[in-house]
TrEMBL record:
UniProt-listed InterPro entries: P-loop_NTPase (IPR027417), TPST-like (IPR026634)
Gene Ontology MF term list: protein-tyrosine sulfotransferase activity
Protein name: Sulfotransferase family protein
Pfam families reported in the protein's UniProt record: Sulfotransfer_3
Signal peptide: none
Species for this entry: Actinocorallia herbida
Keywords annotated in UniProt: Transferase
Length: 285
């Protein structure tokens, strides 16, 4: 017991020393990532897909465009939105929790096993080596995603938050503006929080539409895959259903070509609630 305690104390001391050294060597103006605690998966089952890729973005931020671009790569499977968080395990008998608990499996872990099996199923079906889920709602549960897959990889897809609001308002005729602003804030705040705590590659929608070749090369480098020219010609391939709930179903997506982003909102039109994230994402630089 004493030996274990000494070992733990040594590890803590090394971690503190590493943190202090990193702080001393950090260039001026560079903010450290704010790591947050996530539930441990030490007692969980091994994953069939250890390092899936998640696109973390707000709604109306180009995630469907990025999906079909990635899905055009011969080694990547990027299906429609999977909405994994809506798939629940509900035992039909009271004793089921105890039975599964004896195996070290909570309901949450059982759901994770289900989610993992779905990703594995799609990888096997497509013969791909990389699986991507682009469901925007994952930005709201990024801690759970990270808990389920500690080795997951992330693409943080940003879009000017006020542009997101405008896009949602255009899509939902008669929607309440304040409610849409709050909804957008919840999404972009989740993306930013995840971006500050997880490693990944950040891509701006406006940059993706302006220079898809450059941005997809960056993504491929992050994923450890060779870039393929066919990625930017996504319209030549079948990407499955393009309809509501599955992702964006607009004419832009159906055109099969990367369309230019709309002009950025002027500063005076930005809702104050979104301003801090607009600044953090560099849109006012």
């Amino acid at each position: 017991m004493q030996e274990a305690q000494r070992s733990t104390a040594v590890k803590r001391a090394i971690r503190r020393r590493t943190e202090h050294l990193a702080e001393a060597l950090r260039p001026p103006g560079v903010k450290p990532k704010r790591r947050v605690e996530v539930p441990s998966r030490r007692n969980g089952a091994k994953r069939l897909v250890p390092s899936p890729v998640f696109v973390l973005s707000s709604q109306r931020s180009g995630s469907t465009l990025l999906r079909v671009i990635l899905n055009s790569h011969t080694q990547i499977r990027a299906p429609h939105e999977l909405h994994l968080r809506t798939l629940k395990v509900e035992p039909s008998r009271e004793f089921s929790d105890d039975v599964m608990g004896a195996l070290g499996l909570t309901r949450k872990e059982l759901e994770h096993l289900l989610w993992d099996r779905i990703l594995h199923h799609e990888m096997e079906r497509s013969h791909a080596s990389v699986i991507v889920d682009k469901t925007p709602a994952n930005a709201l549960i990024w801690r759970r995603v990270h808990s389920a897959w500690p080795k997951a990889r992330y693409i943080f897809l940003l879009r000017h938050p006020q542009s997101v609001v405008e896009s949602v308002m255009n899509r939902r005729k008669g929607a309440d503006l304040d409610a849409v602003v709050q909804e957008t804030y919840n999404y972009v705040a989740g993306v930013e929080e995840a971006r500050q705590n997880l490693d990944g590659v950040t891509v701006r929608y406006e940059d993706l539409t302006a220079d898809p070749e450059r941005e997809t090369k960056r993504i491929c480098e992050y994923l450890g895959l060779p870039w393929e020219a066919g990625m930017v010609d996504y319209g030549s391939q079948d990407h499955g259903p393009i309809k509501p709930v599955f992702g964006d179903w607009s004419a832009n997506i159906k055109s099969g070509k990367v369309q230019a982003a709309r002009p950025l909102p002027t500063v005076d039109t930005i809702d104050p609630k979104l301003l801090d994230i607009v600044k953090a994402w560099g849109y006012l630089d």
